[in-house]
Structure formats: structure tokens, C-alpha cells
Task: inverse folding
């Protein structure tokens, strides 16, 4: 297993630790959880950079890297929903977008086509991770802070999802009777 894939697996391993720290709720746990979230987010950047720079892009990495990102974000979003800080409809938009784009990629793959991550998707991931980090670090911030974070996350999610479907609308129009 190459270094990029090891970083992805490290991110996967950090997710249950992140969730456990959130739910245990000891003094300073929000800061510890934020630190884990930040480290996990940085491994996302690092593994992609290393894989592209060193020519270490693998099928495992193409599958596992975005899955690790999704699970990390879903874990944080759902914790905020449970806490009442993020409305469930916002989490549903994020989850639905991720599942829809994944389905689009699977349909395209079946037709022998690869849909790469769009720049808006990378911006969405960065903004989402930044907003979630701010929401984790700012212990009991005013409600508007969560509102702004949710607005940014939701807008970036909708825009990037719409772009993927618009740019790849031909994939949905294929007549595949297999």
C-alpha cells in the first residue's frame, strides 16, 4: 500500500475516534474533536497531492478517498443535527448530493467513462471542512455562526452537484438496456 493510500486509511481510522470524542464529551472534547477533524481534513489534501505528484493514483484511492471524505463530513453533520445546531434538511441535502453524484459516476463508469471531481466539488469540500471546523472550534457560538456555516455548506453543495449533473447530462440520456 502506497503512502497516499495509507493517509486515506488513516483518515478512515480517525473517523470513529472523532465521533467517540464528540459523544464522550469531556472537558475540552470539542477542541480535541476539532483537532482530529482538522488532521483528517489535512490528510485528504495530503493524500491527493502525494498521489498526483508521485504518480501513485490507484483504483483503491479513487474509491476510498472520496468515501472517507463523505463519511467524515456525514459524521460531523449528523452530530450537529443531533445537537440541534444544524437542521436535518441541510444534512439531507449534503447526503443526497453525495449519493446522487456517486450514482452519476457509477452510471458513467458502466458506460466506460470517468467523471473526475470538478473544481466546484473541491471548493465545496474545502468550504465544508472549513465551516465544520469553525463550528467545532467555536464552543457554543451564537446561532448565526451555525446559520452562516450551514448556508455556505448548503450553497456549495447545491452548486457543485448541479454543475456535475449539468456537465454530465449526456450520461443520464444513454440508452443502456443491459
Result:
Amino acid at each position: 500500500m502506497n503512502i497516499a493510500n495509507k493517509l486515506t486509511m488513516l483518515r478512515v481510522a480517525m473517523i470513529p475516534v472523532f465521533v467517540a470524542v464528540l459523544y464522550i464529551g469531556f472537558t475540552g472534547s470539542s477542541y480535541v474533536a476539532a483537532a482530529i477533524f482538522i488532521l483528517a481534513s489535512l490528510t485528504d489534501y495530503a493524500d491527493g497531492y502525494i498521489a498526483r505528484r508521485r504518480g501513485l493514483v490507484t483504483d483503491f484511492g479513487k474509491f476510498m478517498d472520496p468515501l472517507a471524505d463523505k463519511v467524515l463530513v456525514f459524521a460531523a453533520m449528523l452530530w450537529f443535527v443531533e445537537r440541534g445546531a444544524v437542521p436535518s434538511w441541510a444534512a439531507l441535502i449534503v447526503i443526497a448530493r453525495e449519493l446522487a453524484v456517486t450514482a452519476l459516476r457509477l452510471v458513467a463508469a458502466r458506460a466506460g467513462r470517468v467523471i473526475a471531481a470538478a473544481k466546484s466539488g473541491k471548493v465545496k469540500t474545502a468550504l465544508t471542512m472549513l465551516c465544520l471546523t469553525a463550528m467545532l472550534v467555536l464552543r457554543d457560538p451564537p446561532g448565526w455562526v451555525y446559520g452562516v456555516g450551514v448556508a455556505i455548506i448548503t450553497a456549495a453543495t447545491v452548486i457543485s452537484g448541479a454543475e456535475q449533473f449539468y456537465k454530465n447530462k449526456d450520461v443520464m440520456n444513454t440508452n443502456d438496456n443491459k
In short: The mean pLDDT is 91. Helices lie at 3-24, 29-54, 59-83, 88-110, 119-137, 143-167, 169-172.
